[in-house]
Each structure stands twice: as structure tokens, then as C-alpha cells.
Amino acid sequence: MNLLINNVRQLGETIRKVRKDQGLTQEQLAAACGVGTRFVRELERGKESCHLGKSLKVVRMLGMDISVKGHGDI
């Protein structure tokens, strides 16, 4: 999967989709990442103030990577 994500809501939707595709509940994902279920819920809903470090932990646990590129990059 290679997506261009422009906001936190899109990131949350992607995390939710991948979690469900892997057959994980929010509780199982939270336990595997060492974060609370509430955090996973808020992250999937696109809460703007979610902690970046914890968010990256969830992304890595789901087997995804995040890359950053400049607007002029192709």
C-alpha cells in the first residue's frame, strides 16, 4: 500500500483499515504497542493532538512505514 496522507484524519482511517485487515481489535493493537485503548481510538478518529511517538509505534506495529517528502519532490 502506497498512499499520500495529507492530514491526521486520513492517517487514522488508514490505521483503522490496516488494523481490521489484520484481524486485530483496538484492544489487541493497544496491548501490542504498549499504549491505551483510548489512544488507539482517538488516533483512528484523527485526533489532532495524538502523541507522535506513540502514533509511530502503532504504525510500525502494523508493519507500515511513514516517509516524508517535500512538495516539489516527485
Strand tally is 0
How large is the count of helical segments? 4
Spell the H/E element sequence. HHHH
Structural class: mainly alpha
Q: What is the C-level CATH assignment?
A: Mainly Alpha
Helix content: 40-55%
Name of the CATH architecture: Orthogonal Bundle
- Structural domains: how many: 1
Q: What labels would you give this structure?
A:
mainly alpha; single chain; 74 residues; globular; 0% strand; 434 Repressor (Amino-terminal Domain)
Summarize the structure.
The chain has helices spanning 8-21, 26-33, 37-44, 52-61. The protein is mostly helical and 74 residues long. The longest helix has 14 residues, at 8-21.
Explain the overall architecture.
With 74 residues, the protein is mostly helical. It has one domain (8-61): Orthogonal Bundle (434 Repressor (Amino-terminal Domain)), CATH 1.10.260.40. The chain is 54% helix and 0% strand. The model has no long low-confidence stretch (mean pLDDT 93).
Can you lay out the helices and strands and say which pair or pack?
Layout: H1 8-21, H2 26-33, H3 37-44, H4 52-61
